[in-house]
Every structure is written in structure tokens, then in C-alpha cells.
Amino acid sequence: MSYVWIVVVVLVIVFLALLALKVVKQYEQGVLFRFGRVIGVRQPGLRVIIPLVDVLNRVSLRIVTMPIQSQGIITKDNVSVDVSAVAYFRVVDAVKSVVAIESVGAAINQIAQTTLRKVVGQHTLDETLSETDRINVDIKVILDVATEDWGVEVTLVELKDIQLPDSMKRAMARQAEAEREKRAKIIAAEGEALAADALGVAADIMMAHPLALQLRNLQSLVELGVDQNTTVVFPAPLMSTIGELGSFLARESNAALASPPHASVVDVAPVVNGKPLAATDS
Questions:
Q1: Which residues touch 93 (CB under 8 Å, ≥6 apart)?
Q2: Quick one: three-class SS letters along 76-134?
Q3: Which of 101, 107, 86, 112 is nearest to 151 (CA)?
Q4: Cα(203)–Cα(196) distance, rounded to whole angstroms?
Q5: pTM, two decimal places
Q6: What is the DSSP string of 22-74?
Q7: Cα–Cα distance between 58 and 7 in angstroms, integer?
Q8: Assign residue 88 a region: left if phi > 0, alpha if psi is -120 to 50, beta otherwise?
């Protein structure tokens, strides 16, 4: 019987020793309770506690990724959208995270959903789509203020997905198409204006230097002959041709005015009985 008691005592000692030895991992901190009161924080490593008296709660200090489920939100301009996000947080005070709140993850999830709905509802649809960075910062600031007393720091909040109604998607597509058409017409008009200015400058240069027009005509002939076609083009400047035609008509008119008048026509009188009749001038 004595051996049995010895074995029992040894087993009890081993069991108590196992209860007294605790391992805190590198990414954790241990909050030690003695008779229900916090007496300190234990750093990573092998730690010894008093069995049945002390309780060691391990708290992870790693960053936690928490998805925020999609929320049906009415924007400031009365458009219904579904917005989902993701939040990153970590525990910076192990004691507060254990004592101040029951479940840190559940609490942050709930307050993140309400904050997301509140912040997005204060912006219009265009602001929600184009100013996501500012919305992310606003949500993070509000969460930091709420979770500071819990010993938790929110490191990042990002809007993950924004779902729009199908009718709104079609309206936005039409708006984008109209905007692109407007920009295309403006660019085309600006191009026409620049081309008109360039052509005006070129016309002034060719008027001052007639040989430039002939060189341009020769360049046109070279461009037409690239494809080895059988068409031969002889360019003739329209204005020069009209001017030469006008000069020709003017010369002809002057020549017609300077010519002498026609001589009178004399009719030859017929001869009757060997005597000519009197001739009359017509």
C-alpha cells in the first residue's frame, strides 16, 4: 500500500508541476490573475504560476484581419448601395483587452459595421466612388477613438467592394459615354482650329514665295508616284490660271478696240446698151 501512495503522490506532484508551467509564445503576452485579480503581465517564454491559484490568459498581439460584411447603405443623394470592407487591428494593451471588454473581435466587428454605414451615408455616390481614401481614413479615426479604451489599435480600414443597382450602372455608363463624346468633339474642334491657323500661315508663305507652291506641287507628284500607278497629274494653280485667262481676255478686248473701221462697199453698176448706169454707194 505504501508503494501505491508514493506513486499517487508522485503523479500529483507531476500533475501540479505541469499546471504550474506555462509557455507564452513570442507573439503573445500573458495576463496573470491571482484569486481573480490582475497581478501583472508575463512576457514570452517559460513561466511558472501557482496551480489552482493563478490563471494565465494568453493574448495574441498579432494583427487580425476582420472582414466587414456587406451593408445596405443609402448615400447622401438617396442612392442604395451595398458596401463591404475589411479592417486590420491588433492588441496593444493586453490587460485592457481582457478586463475592459468580453470579446474584442466581436465588439470591433459590430462597431465597424455601424461606423461604415454612418460614414458612407454622409457622402454622395460620386464621393463614395472617387474619395475612398478619405472615407477609409474617417472610418479608421472613428474606430480608433472607440477602441482606445479596449487596448486595441485599428491599423487600417479599406472599402473592399461597392455594389450599385443595375439601373444606376446603366445611367453611369451613358454619362461616361456622353462625357467621352464631348471631349472628342472638343479635341476635334481644337484640331481644326490649329489646322486652319497652320494653313493660313502656309498660304501667306506661299503667296510671298511663289516657288514654294511649285515645290509643293512637285512633292504631290512624288507622293502620287509611290504606288507605281499609270496616272499622270499636271498640277495647275487655279488662281494663276484664272489670272492668265483674265489677262488674255483683256488683251483681246484692247486689240479689237484698236483695229481700223471697215471700208465702204461700192456696187458696180450694170452696163445697159453699152453705157454704164450710175453707181451708188451703199
A1: 151, 152
A2: CCCCEEEEEEEEEEEECCHHHHHHCCCCHHHHHHHHHHHHHHHHHHCCCHHHHHHCHHH
A3: 101
A4: 10
A5: 0.59
A6: EEE-TTEEEEEEETTEEEEEE-SEEEE--TTTEEEEEEE-S-EEEEEEEEEEE
A7: 33
A8: beta
Beta carbons within 10 angstroms of residue 172's beta carbon: 14
SS3 195: helix
Residue with cell 483587452: 97
Tallying the residues shown for the chain, one arrives at 282
Domain boundaries, the chain: 2-60, 64-164
DSSP state of 153: E
Report the C-alpha gap between 238 and 229 in whole angstroms.
25
Kindly report, residue by residue over 220-267, the tens digit of the pLDDT: 777 766 666 666 555 555 556 556 667 777 877 888 777 655 544 444
Provide CATH code, domain 64-164: 3.30.479.30
